[in-house]
Amino acid sequence: MHPSDISILPQAPSPSDQRAGRRTFLKYAGGIAAGMAPLMAAQAQQAGASAKVDFPPDHADSEAPEKMPDPGLPPAERIGYAVVGLGRLTVGRLLPALAKSRYSRLSALVSGDPAKARKLAQQYGLAEQSIYNYDDFDRIAANPDVQVVYIVLPNSMHAEFTIRAARAGKHVLCEKPMANSVAECQQMIDACRQAQRKLMIAYRSQYEPLTRSLLKMARENRLGELKEFISANSQNMGDPAQWRLKKALAGGGPLPDVGIYCINAARFLSGEEPTEVLGSMRNNPADPRFREVEESVQFTLRFPSGFSATCSSGYNSHKSQFLRLQGTLGWGELDPAYAYEGNRLRYGLLQNGREVIHEPSIAASDQFMLEIDHMSQCVRQDRQPHTPGEEGLQDQRIIEAIYASAQGGRVIRLAPPGNTRGPEPRQEG
Ligand code: NDP
Asked: How far apart are CA 254 and CA 296, in angstroms?
């Protein structure tokens, strides 16, 4: 106990009081208990251990210890989220992640499809009055149960709903790509700044444990001086009518949708910002899927230290997601990388004169849950998110430079931005 805490305890009885017997003792003991209760609760909460159920180890030291789950906050104290747009990502990943998160809870749904919203509200135990639509969304200002609005709409709608959420006094977590233009990204940052609300872009890879292991290796110089990053993120698209293939809604084709993962990983793994961008793309309007957006794109980013990233992204080949980081002393790769689950890390180093390839296994944890809980902890502790609006804005600048380079057939130079990232995520996981 800290000495300054002692002042809140009732005074100890004198020896003569002690002779007064058991009643005095009980009064004293009860007073201590009552006086200490808030202190103990605060200490327990600070330690984050109040509700955790733990067991002594029952295996030898040679075995990995079995960890019991950290329960986080009691449900009523968790940060409340309104999720806007009930599509595949929301239904398949985000609502389940919110349900198992430790600092966050679902508190409202926003949808253009009332029947689907009612179905999901029922599944997740929400009352009907917690359902909003795109027209009455601004009523959310009056709902104290919602602290964060999570925007999971087609890309062209991110800016409008971020600005409306900030004006409604809510913090914003917005899916990638942040928006369809640099100008929109800046408007989103300005709106959140003006409303003094936090803005985080949902770059889940930056919260994913295996990707963070590779980042740690790079930062600890275990791969030596970083020289090259090689990465692809592609998938084969179907229905030509879907919004991802409509330029006005998607902003572009594979580049802002999946190529953005390669851009972002090259930047955060190297800790540098590109100063030169060279792009080329394949347009194929004969295929009904690619009348409005590119079929595939290839690009090189050059960084001030001499590090470079060579990447490719397409909507025309079977799902392929990998990255490889090469340094003077070793290499590290994720294959798959950027996957929702099942990412695999391998790295190769020279050890005792032999090339040794390692494949560490790390207990799986849901990267969507880690990312959402990071936002919640930032709100609770008034911290800047690790991936704020500035991080999304910088990727959008690079996307626009790649398109300009591909169209003009020339290298585009980029001025370095200021710092685009907030403090490192703590142990949200
Ligand atoms: P879906 O097409 O599956 O869902 C989008 C939802 O947006 C729809 O279900 C609909 O919800 C709503 N919507 C509102 N207006 C429109 C419109 N004009 N056309 C289509 N849908 C509309 O998309 P995803 O869930 O795959 O993607 C949503 C966002 O999440 C995108 O920005 C995408 O880039 C991002 N994303 C991020 C991923 C990640 O790993 N971080 C992975 C996948 C997507 P309702 O019916 O409720 O109105």
From this structure: 7
